[in-house]
Specification:
25% helix; 204 residues; five-stranded mixed sheet; 9 strands; four-stranded mixed sheet; single chain; alpha+beta
Amino acid sequence: MRARNVALYAADKGNRYRLHVDRADGRQLGTLLLLAARSPRSLVYLPLRSNPDVPDVGLDGEHPLDLVLVPRARQFRPAHWKRLRTRITTANAPRELRTASVPENDLTRDIADDRPSSGDRCMLRQHLFAETLFLTGASGAFREAARHVFALAAEGPPLAADYYGHDYHAGICNYHHCSNLYNGEELPDGWRQVHMAFHPTWAR
């Protein structure tokens, strides 16, 4: 299933990325984060650049990005991404369809045992290359990111229903419901905050 209601933007100037999700595809993104947490050899690719733009959101000076989730154990180098992406997206590339699932208790699992205790290793590391944002980290960091995304997808719809039509602030915090991927963390030099906002379904 393609996540058409997930959008990721970067500004030419500024200190953050913007990630927008609706309820259904926000839950799908959260599940993919949990998959990255459970599968250290995986590489999760979300081709978001071709998705429809989020309506009523100011995008001046911004451009869409793809997203790749890479477990730290995978030791994937972003410099290899262009060649791999070409292999993945070639029309006649061999494909084997599979399904994947994650246990329901993954979201409530205590991450203390699999998350480093301090420093930027306890967060998802960032690399921007070839119009793609790479998020790399330990399983606990992916699991914690999933918690943020699931909360956004769950709490956004009732707020959207309450605010819709009379208290909407385009381009700021849609329907007054947003959060940051790195909550309360001091980011290393060169990193950007990933600001996440809920938006009702905009693509079918």
